[in-house]
Amino acid sequence: MAAAFASERLVRLDGQRPDVFAELSGFFRTADAWVRTHANYSHHRARLLAALDLSAETARDEFARRAATLGAADIEQRAAEHGAIAVRVRTEGEWADSPQGKAAASGPLVAIEPRGDRGEVRSPGAATRPLPLRGVRVLDLTRVIAGPVATRALALLGADVLRVDPPRLPEIGWQFLDTCQGKRSTVVDLRTDLPVLRELISNADIIISGYRPGSLERLGVRPGEIRPGIVHGRVSAWGESGPWGDRRGFDSIVQAASGISLIEGTQQNSHDQLPVGALPVQALDHASGYLLAAGALDALRDARADSQGRDVRVALARTGSWLLRAPGRTPDHPPAPAPAAGYAVTHGAVTTAAPALAEYSDHPWPAPDYGSGTAEWEVRPDGS
């Protein structure tokens, strides 16, 4: 499990470790504090530069000089207005006292809520080990880490997982290879091919989505109406309540906003001038992903008992709040070592972490070529 949480430290492409963060992703000193940015995707980079009135060709040094002339809160607000991703680095106390911090600390760690729709909930084939989910169809509408980790776990247990990506926003290569094992991959343009998505939902058992809250509904897509009785798992950065409910975010950004970066910076950088740092793994992503997978299975079990659809929700910020409140925090701990190579699997030129469950020595198959599959379900073991 520890190696799976640190999977980005084990990934190798032709023996080389990929760059996990892009040039404009990271910590930047501002006129009064620090911010953390995320610009791994080209469209997020473009929005971040626009937010700071910089040209598309701006390099890291020039960006840093510009950030140093602005206040951290100003950069955070500019980013939010442009749909970019940057937050002011906060202390744990500041976050706990903020409206969004209070929202993130409330409610269950995994929220499972019945809906009003009811419909036939199919049972998998034999439902026995080692593939108890054989015959269960999972529609994967997620990206980056948390959502794909959830669906990768379901694929490991035998589910037919179909990942759908937008053709105009391709996924980062190493992330796809690290989280798409055991799945099939296709592309569907939701702006023009909504009937295709609706057809996939109508024959799915579980849908896992990572869009910001309300995004699917604004497209007119309500899974419970299309497929009564379906389990809909959702992962978001900040949760669905509070003033940041519709903002974008990632693990590193939530760490910075919630106080984790300052906690880790104090421990990691006690001998230099950097007060900011990060957890040795993207723990909020991975923990949220496995929590979502477990919640989806609980919801599927209950739906089979009463035919009632259910929503399952997790949020990186809620997971972070739970982590901050957990007992046993150890100050001044040494840096965590990288996972041993024995916890990795290699297929051709690609090395990734072994599955999180020790009884599985490997994933069902390596990640397929991106977008190589068709937007349709495989025939179930019972022929349906």
From TrEMBL:
Region (Disordered): 360-384
Enzyme class: transferase
Sequence intervals crossing the membrane: none
Keywords: Transferase
Ubl conjugation in keyword set: no
UniProt-listed PANTHER family: BLR3030 PROTEIN (PTHR48228:SF4), SUCCINYL-COA--D-CITRAMALATE COA-TRANSFERASE (PTHR48228)
Enzyme Commission number(s) of this protein: 2.8.3.16
Name this polypeptide is given: Formyl-CoA transferase
One Gene Ontology molecular-function label: formyl-CoA transferase activity
Originating species: Nocardia seriolae
Keyword tRNA processing set for record: no
Pfam families according to UniProt: CoA_transf_3
InterPro entries (alphabetical): CoA-transferase_III, CoA-Trfase_fam_III, CoA-Trfase_III_dom_1_sf
